[in-house]
């Protein structure tokens, strides 16, 4: 029998929904329960491509919109060989944002259709589970001001949310929406239980390709 593989779990959602906190807690919780698990955060600002993306986000550099979209995608592709290796070694990978953020943010700019936005990410490892941390714009506002990076405004975030809703209509993907207004601990427990169920279900199934 082939070795059991790890699951690919993506965390998506609007800014301040708690993706990064929950990503860290999930990996800690899974490890404490005896699973092998790693976290990858996209964009990964540590690579050369990631540094370009970061300088764009902090407004040090202006990049043309198509160009930056492709750089975000390239920043995912540069991780794919290692991600596949780990998944096949039985390591579950939690990604803090993935191709869905890539599509939702560029599509929210208004002049890029969903289909164009998806193309560069077609064929990436397909997540076994996409957890959408849902927080209403009002609740997000209560969590304090946005930072100063590009995209951090409530009007733009509202458009991003609408793009996420369009992506969620794709029933070939395993979207699960969770209520991100709960306490950190309650949300963590809910997410960990959904993640463990998915890991169990997919361990003997082949890894698929996204949007193919
Ligand atoms: P972060 O705040 O999670 O570090 O993400 C940085 C910003 O980059 C955030 O506003 C979302 C945006 N983004 C894209 O525009 N495209 C992408 O592919 C990804 C992963 C993030
Ligand atoms: Mg941010």
UniProtKB/TrEMBL annotation:
Any Pfam family the entry gives: Thymidylate_kin
Keywords of this entry: ATP-binding, Kinase, Nucleotide biosynthesis, Nucleotide-binding, Transferase
Superkingdom of the organism of origin: Eukaryota
Keyword Kinase among UniProt keywords: yes
Molecular function terms, GO-annotated: ATP binding; dTMP kinase activity; nucleoside diphosphate kinase activity
PROSITE patterns according to UniProt: THYMIDYLATE_KINASE
Function per UniProt: Catalyzes the phosphorylation of thymidine monophosphate (dTMP) to thymidine diphosphate (dTDP), the immediate precursor for the DNA building block dTTP, with ATP as the preferred phosphoryl donor in the presence of Mg(2+).
PANTHER family linked to this entry: THYMIDYLATE KINASE (PTHR10344)
Stated name of the protein: Thymidylate kinase
Native species: Lepidothrix coronata
Gene behind this protein: DTYMK
């Amino acid at each position: 029998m082939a070795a059991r593989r790890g699951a690919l779990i993506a965390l998506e959602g609007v800014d301040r929904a708690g993706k990064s906190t929950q990503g860290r807690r999930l990996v800690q919780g899974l490890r404490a329960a005896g699973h092998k698990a790693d976290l990858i955060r996209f964009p990964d600002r540590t690579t050369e491509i990631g540094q370009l993306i970061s300088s764009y986000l902090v407004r040090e550099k202006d990049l043309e919109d198509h160009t930056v979209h492709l750089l975000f995608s390239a920043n995912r592709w540069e991780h794919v060989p290692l991600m596949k290796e780990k998944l096949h070694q039985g390591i579950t990978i939690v990604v803090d944002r993935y191709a869905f953020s890539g599509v939702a943010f560029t599509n929210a700019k208004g002049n890029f259709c969903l289909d164009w936005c998806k193309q560069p990410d077609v064929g990436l490892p397909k997540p076994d589970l996409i957890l959408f941390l849902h927080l209403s714009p009002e609740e997000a506002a209560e969590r304090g001001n946005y930072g100063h990076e590009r995209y951090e405004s409530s009007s733009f975030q509202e458009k991003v949310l609408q793009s996420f809703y369009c992506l969620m209509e794709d029933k070939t993907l395993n979207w699960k929406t969770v209520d991100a207004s709960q306490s950190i601990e309650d949300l963590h427990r809910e997410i960990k239980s959904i993640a463990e169920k998915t890991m169990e279900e997919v361990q003997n199934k082949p890894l698929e390709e996204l949007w193919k």
